[in-house]
Amino acid sequence: MKARTAIALIGFAVLATFVATSMATNSTWGQRTRYDRLLYRTDVVKKSSLWRVISVDVEYPGKNASNPFNITQVTAIDHKRKDGGFAQLRKGGPGYRNVTLHIKSARNHGLNYTVEIFGN
Ligand SMILES: *[C@@H]1O[C@H](CO)[C@@H](O)[C@H](O)[C@H]1NC(C)=O
Ligand SMILES: *[C@@H]1O[C@H](CO)[C@@H](O)[C@H](O)[C@H]1NC(C)=O
Ligand SMILES: *[C@@H]1O[C@H](CO)[C@@H](O)[C@H](O)[C@H]1NC(C)=O
Ligand SMILES: *[C@@H]1O[C@H](CO)[C@@H](O)[C@H](O)[C@H]1NC(C)=O
Ligand SMILES: *[C@@H]1O[C@H](CO)[C@@H](O)[C@H](O)[C@H]1NC(C)=O
């Protein structure tokens, strides 16, 4: 490989990493139909903290609560345009009656998410 190509590739990789960590993205698990209802919606808003990654777990239903509905779709909407966070499905989700989402901020940045859970 020519040095120039290698440098271009490294440059691209650095740029891709930068773009991947700076763009906000929404995440969706499962599909919903018009028969599904909104079971739960919550806003996750956290202030940034210097040098830190903020992480929040969203659990549905709560500790002592029970949910009689089958979950069909879980969405995590990131309201930020850049320096967005990262949402991960930890437990449950579509096909279950419970779900735990783990949301992490970008280092040095806060969170502004809305989580919605649909089911029937
Ligand atoms: C995420 O979803 C919200 C609400 O639907 C929308 O306004 C926003 O443009 C979406 N962001 C991205 C990066 O697709
Ligand atoms: C959950 O239920 C237990 C036992 O009934 C009780 O001690 C506890 O305070 C409840 N927790 C919440 C968050 O309601
Ligand atoms: C979070 O996003 C909502 C919807 O875009 C916006 O109205 C609100 O001001 C934002 N909050 C913060 C703290 O940025
Ligand atoms: C629950 O939802 C999942 C995902 O939409 C679906 O595959 C499954 O058949 C549903 N189960 C029941 C009992 O309705
Ligand atoms: C979710 O529900 C399943 C059964 O439907 C249960 O086995 C599991 O312990 C529950 N998980 C949480 C985190 O509540």
From TrEMBL:
Pfam families per the record?
A: MBF2
Q: Does the keyword Zinc-finger belong to this entry?
A: no
> Which InterPro entries does the record match to this protein?
MBF2
Q: Which UniProt keywords apply?
A: Signal
Q: Which residues form the signal peptide?
A: 1-24
Stated name of the protein = (Mediterranean fruit fly) hypothetical protein
